[in-house]
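WARN retry 2 of 3 for item q-0093 after timeout on previous attempt; input resubmitted unchanged.
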Amino acid sequence: MLTTPKPQHVLQRPHIFSMDNNIEVKIEDTVVYKYNKEDNLYDFFVKDNNVKCTNYNQTYGIPQWEDISKHLESESAFLDWVQKEYPEILKVPRFCPRCSYPLGDPDCEHIVRCNRQECRRNHGGNQYKQSVWKGSFFDGFRGGKHKLMEFLYHWLIGGTNKSIGLHSGWSRVKVQRWEQAVRDLVATVVKEDHQMIGGEGVVVEIDESKFGKRKYNKGHRVEGAWVFGGVELTPDRKCFAVVVPDRKRETLLPIIKAHIKPGSIIRSDFWKAYDIIPFEKGFDYVHEKVNHSKHYVDPETAVHTNTIEGTWHGIKRQTPVRRRNRKDIQRCLFEFIWRRRNSGNLWNGLMRALEEVEYLEDEKPKQTQSKSKQAKAADKAKKGCVVGIKKEE
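OK item q-0093 returned
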């Protein structure tokens, strides 16, 4: 008599139990999903080997929303919090640039002024004044700076454009515009803080991947982009990824030299552009290869490129399909690198980026423009006005 085989893995029904104001769902004694009725929020917990419940937010270094939201009730409350906890985000000078006289405290309109009468007389009766947000990421945003901070929080935790739009009430275009702005912000940090990977005896896997290709050659024509990158086999998994016009030797070799430290052990497949690595002048690398036409892990040397392949999968999973083109893909690559560099400390990484990056004054939208032109100018300003890391005086 034929019998139906039993499945190897059976999903257990989660145990549900109630508390005073909460409902907890327990799955396989490892993960606890805690739902708070009053706040309508989910908290995630993961148990460690000592059976102690650890807050899931600590894994990524992001504070709880309830700890942040109390500072975002109004723009004034947000400003007070920034001045106390992250004063370097504000680019306003402490002294008047005209007369070096100390500036006063911000008024109700969040503007600092020079109250020295002599300074005003020497400049045609014009008092020096400046918004506390001038030169910062929040400059030029209309509708409450605390709302923009809410957007940054939800972007940081990986919220989709749809979820962010539903939470904030923003339009799809507005969400996309500011998403691009924050990607430009972290891209500036990555470019200014250029870090080479690898080192003496450290293994670095390199590979190239096509973004935006058509599956089975079906669907509309996609331009796509080739991306060349590498990742080191260390716990930090430091990596780099660069958009390239082609996979020629002349294109890839300078990138290898610019991003991989001498003395590294480079692992790759049998792509012909890599054959010259052991013989190239000025290249101090050990080159190991694996033939993917025969096996993915060399049975004799155990050489593989599975780590970089997994990195490509992670990048593509976080990159929207419509961004996989030459114009937008590099921003997404910088975001992935930035998130990996700040793994376990994302919140502090974002705060450092807001503190270090300044914006050009002449790129800001002019007040005399119409509302629609101001929106376009603000978009252009956030795209092209990042000038780099702030220099300490």
